[in-house]
Specification:
The complex is a heterodimer of chains A (256) and B (402). Chain A has a single domain, classed as TIM Barrel, CATH 3.20.20. In chain A, 49% of the residues lie in helices and 14% in strands. Chain A has 12 helices and 9 strands. In chain A, strands 5-4-3-2-1-9-8-7-6 form a 9-stranded parallel β-sheet. In chain A, helix 2 packs across helix 4 (75-85), helix 2 packs parallel to helix 12 and helix 4 (75-85) runs parallel beside helix 6 (107-117). Chain A starts with a helix and ends with a helix. Chain B has helices at 21-39, 41-55, 65-71, 89-102, 116-128, 138-143, 145-153, 168-181, 199-207, 209-222, 238-244, 273-276, 314-321, 332-346, 352-359, 384-393, and strands at residues 10-11, 14-15, 61-63, 74-79, 107-112, 131-137, 157-161, 186-189, 229-233, 254-262, 278-282, 285-289, 325-331, 371-376. The termini of chain B are far apart. The chains are: A alpha/beta (256), B alpha/beta (402). Chain A binds chain B through residues 51-53, 55-56, 58, 62, 66, 69, 74-75, 98-105, 125-128, 131, 149-152, 154-156, 159, 174, 177-179, and chain B through 16-22, 24-26, 163-164, 169, 173, 176-177, 180-184, 278-284, 291, 293-297. The complex binds pyridoxal-5'-phosphate (PLP). Pyridoxal-5'-phosphate (PLP) is lined by residues 87, 113-114, 116-117, 192, 233-240, 306-307, 351, 353-354, 377-378 of chain B.
Chain lengths: 256, 402
């Protein structure tokens, strides 16, 4: 069974998803980071495929991507690393990357590699739902790769329903209209937006991300959804780290 | 073959809107509104009167007698350099600012390479009293200083783009990120026929006034609307799109796109997208772009900040792939020599971008009876420091050889 499916059928709240960029801070850190996150109870790991032009990302993820690329990180290597990590690890893993990277790799080859290496799902922020629906839905099913679409405060109810229908991992609830990497508190407008989504009684579990950076924002997000995604805040702590597993356990202890 | 955009926003295999959900609502609004708004009588009236009295249109179609003699053919220059602010870019910014006002937007952002689009945006924002922020690569801020000063004089804020190669691509990334952060009050005025649908079509429509005028102007000069060739430089491709627009279905008119070869198409330092590019996604559009096998976008190079872009508008990708457009390449050196030639022969100093188009004249084997229209997209005041350095390196060129 797909690990995302088993996660969401067994756990309904306080799901913690942590994002990091593959190849950052070092090319070979991927497996160590996956193990340490899993050991510290992280429920789900989102691995970013470093990209030269990450349109929806703020400075932190841009910089981690640039470092990863200059470290020589690439997709084939990432698949190998995920595959190797599967010897010791069973945490659900989703890859997050931009559509162009998958197009160049070849969509079917990409999905096949996901299945072979043990990737459970994908987040592709610039893949339009319409194109997924018309061209790729069967291929994703064939290789048992789940997909999560994003919704934002600007997304119409109709499109939220469509994201609910098409997403089969989780729905990625973008906490506010922004790129990644902000770190302010969650304000009332955001809470109203979370409540509006809660009332829609969607079928797909929701994880709230963007700007989740500490215990308080994590808790608020969890109060309104099945869980939360932490990205830039985690990358910032990795930046200065000399002992990755210690840094990770301290970081997770600060969050929950 | 159909050369204009289809219902889904594609030109053949190219185009579309590959954008994150954060931009969806703005792009959707543009998509559903732009044709309606552009067709409104009040919009047309305001647009046309500003083009006439503020921009100074129609821009002349000038018979370049001495240049024609030199190449033993007939060459006309479409004088977009005489527009207010000195380039074709203002045709688009006038259109988009009127659209932005009708959409109720209060804040305008733009990207710029050469600074011409930034100046044209700052200008229309001053005209309409709207806040203006222009993203510009740090490298381009250095090499196009006069335009940076103009933008500031006009009240715009120029924000340096510090990522990547710090040029046009990176400025565009920053502008897109700004729009994600400010979706409700902001309109993004893209400066070329690039980006997600409907931008390429919308910008081409605003620039299409160039070829609309060319048709009746050439008829006045020559008794015929259609030249044998139309030549334009292509960065993203907006002056080219405007110059080609009303001729695309006239197959007797050969259309010629000139790309920047930088230090040579295969030198590793080039912006010759149609040769070096493969199909992929850049700035929300499926088009030809320079990228690695892994789909990482390659930093381009050209001496010209306005052509230093790793992609090409999706319509041009379609025109080139389908064989409708012919492509030539001009290196830095060839463009500089062409700029000098036009200055000395016709008394017109072209923008460095534009000079690339003129460098194609050497390569085209024009016949005596051929009529060619060159899109003279902009003037070269902004490039004087580059030209001066060129003259200093080539002392023989200091005096005219005529
Ligand atoms: C004078 C001039 N011509 C051409 C260009 C290239 O843009 P496009 O290909 O969109 O016409 C620029 C861009 O800055 C420009 O300033």
């Amino acid at each position: 069974m797909n690990r995302l499916e088993s996660l969401f059928s067994n756990k309904y709240k306080e799901i913690l998803n942590v994002y990091f960029t593959a190849g950052h801070p070092t090319k070979d850190a991927t497996q160590d980071i996956i193990y340490a996150l899993e050991q510290n109870g992280v429920d789900l790991i989102e691995v970013g495929i470093p990209y030269s032009d990450p349109m929806a990302d703020g400075e932190t993820i841009q910089k981690s991507s640039a470092i990863a690329l200059s470290n020589g990180m690439n997709l084939s290597l990432l698949f190998q690393q995920v595959k190797d990590s599967r010897r010791r690890s069973n945490v659900p893993i989703v890859l997050m990357g931009y559509y162009n990277q998958m197009l160049q790799f070849g969509i079917e080859k990409f999905l096949k590699q996901c299945q072979l290496s043990g990737v459970d799902g994908l987040i592709i922020p610039d893949l339009p739902m319409s194109i997924y629906k018309n061209e790729y839905i069967d291929l994703f099913d064939k290789y048992d790769v789940k997909i999560s679409f994003l919704i934002t405060p600007e997304t119409s109810d109709e499109r939220i329903r469509l994201a609910d229908e098409l997403s089969n991992g989780f729905i990625y609830v973008v906490s506010k209209s922004s790129i990644t990497g902000t770190s302010s508190n969650i304000d009332d407008a955001q809470k109203h937006y979370f409540e509006r989504i809660e009332k829609m009684k969607l079928n797909t579990p929701r994880l709230i991300g963007f700007g989740i950076h500490d215990k308080k924002t994590y808790q608020t997000a969890c109060n309104h959804s099945q869980g939360a995604i932490i990205g830039s805040a985690f990358i910032r702590t990795l930046n200065g780290s000399s002992d990755i597993s210690k840094t990770i356990s301290e970081f997770i202890n600060r969050i929950r | 073959m159909k050369y204009q955009v289809d219902e889904l926003g594609f030109y053949g295999d190219f185009g579309g809107a590959f954008i994150p959900e954060m931009l969806h609502s703005n792009i959707e609004t543009l998509k559903s509104e732009y044709k309606k708004i552009i067709a409104e009588a009040s919009f047309k009236e305001e647009f046309n009167s500003l083009l006439k009295d503020y921009v100074g249109r129609p821009s002349p179609l000038y018979f370049a007698k001495r240049l024609s003699e030199k190449y033993n053919t007939k060459i006309y220059l479409k004088r977009e350099d005489l527009n207010h602010t000195g380039a074709h870019k203002i045709n688009n910014t006038i259109g988009q600012i009127l659209l932005a006002k009708r959409l109720g937007k209060k804040r305008i952002i733009a990207e710029t390479g050469a600074g011409q689009h930034g100046v044209a945006t700052a200008t229309v924002c001053a005209l309409m009293g709207l806040e203006c922020i222009v993203y510009m690569g740090k490298v381009d801020i250095g090499r196009q200083a006069p335009n940076v000063a103009r933008m500031k004089m006009l009240g715009a804020e120029v924000r340096p783009a510090l990522s990547g190669s710090q040029t046009l691509k990176d400025a565009t990334n920053e502008a897109i990120r700004d729009w994600i952060n400010n979706p409700s009050n902001t309109h993004y005025i893209i400066g070329s026929v690039v980006g997600p649908h409907p931008y390429p079509d919308m910008v081409a429509r605003f620039q299409s006034v160039i070829s609309e005028e060319m048709k009746w102007q050439l008829k006045e000069h020559e008794g015929r609307e259609n030249p044998n060739y139309i030549v334009a430089c292509v960065g993203g491709g907006s002056n080219a799109a405007g110059a080609f627009y009303h001729y695309l279905d006239d197959l007797d008119v050969k259309i010629v796109a000139v790309e920047a070869a930088g230090k040579g198409v295969n030198s590793g330092e080039s912006a010759a997208t149609s040769v070096l590019g493969t199909i992929g996604i850049i700035h929300g559009s499926k088009t030809l772009l320079m990228q690695t096998e892994d789909g990482q976008i390659i930093e381009p190079y050209s001496i010209s900040a306005g052509l230093d872009y790793p992609g090409i508008g999706p319509q041009h990708a379609h025109l080139i792939s389908s064989g409708r457009a012919i492509v030539y390449h001009a290196s830095d050196e060839e463009a500089l020599a062409a700029a000098l030639e036009l200055s000395r022969i016709e008394g017109i100093i072209p923008a460095l971008e534009t000079a690339h188009a003129f460098a194609a004249l050497n390569k085209m084997h024009l016949k005596k009876e051929d009529i060619t229209i060159m899109c003279l997209s902009g003037r070269g005041d902004k490039d004087l420091s580059t030209f001066t350095a060129y003259l200093d390196k080539n002392p023989g060129q200091h005096k005219s050889d005529h």
